Amino acid sequence: YNKVCGQVRGYQYGTPDGFVGPKDVDSYYVDGISITHGSPRKHLWTYAIGASDDYNYGGNWNCPCAKFPGLSPPSFVGNHYYCESGNTGVVNHQFYDEPLWDGEGCGAGNNCCAQSGMPWFCRALPQEVDDDIEVRNCANQGISDEDTYIEILEIYVQ
Fold it and tell me: How far is 15 from 52, CA to CA, in rounded Å?
């Protein structure tokens, strides 16, 4: 294959921290979904979760596109990511019913839902490969603090 497309839809529990974590594709660089291929891993796409659409957590926990922006993604991610929060306001330890990465439901002053192509991603690779594709549900804290429920996961190769 030399082209990979897909989509993920999920739901947020608790306080995911966006791109807080090690800046290493082999680690939990994101709270959310990491899609890679090959060994060593090569990044395809990331679905990140910020803590809140519109509450100021001091510049760390939110998405980079939130009203109060969080940390930028690691350089290997580039612009190949979507980031959204299912929460507005202060985070509680609960599942939120707002679907993630659907391009809808973002609060005022938040640009996360304006990302082109949501919920679908598509990546053209520079050459044909036969690598395995790996999907990881990453988090830098335990499930009592943050988690991601996945409802839809579709990956297509060409």
Answer: 8
Question: Could you give the C-alpha distances from 110 to 67, 92, 104, in angstroms and in order?
Answer: 5, 20, 11
Instruction: List, in order, residues 6 or more apart from 53 with CB less than 8 Å away.
Output: 62, 66, 67, 84, 85, 87, 88, 106, 107, 110, 112
Phi and psi angles of residue 107, each rounded to the nearest 5 degrees, phi first: -75, 170
On whether the CB atoms of residues 14 and 146 are closer than 8 A, the answer is yes
Give 24-51 pLDDT, tens digit per residue. 999 999 999 999 999 999 999 999 999 9
pTM over 0.85: yes
pLDDT per position as a tens digit, 79-118: 999 999 998 888 787 888 999 999 998 878 889 998 889 9
Q: Strand pairing partners for 12?
A: 148
**Both structure tokens of 101:** 């990465």
